[in-house]
Amino acid sequence: MKWSEIAIHTTSEAVEPISNILHEAGASGVVIEDREDLFKEREDQFGEIYQLNPDDYPEEGVLMKAYLPVNSFLGETVEGIKEAINSLMLYDIDLGLNSVTISEVNEEEWATAWKKYYHPVKISERFTIVPTWEEYEPVSSDELIIELDPGMAFGTGTHPTTVLCIQALEKMVNRGDKVVDVGTGSGVLSIAAAMLGASHVEALDLDEVAVKSAKLNIKLNKVQDTVNVSQNNLLDGVTGLQDVIVANILAEVIMRFTDDVATGLKQGGYFISSGIILQKKDEVKEALIASGFEIMETMVMEDWVAFIAKKK
Question: Containing domain of residue 56, as a range?
Answer without folding.
Answer: 3-115
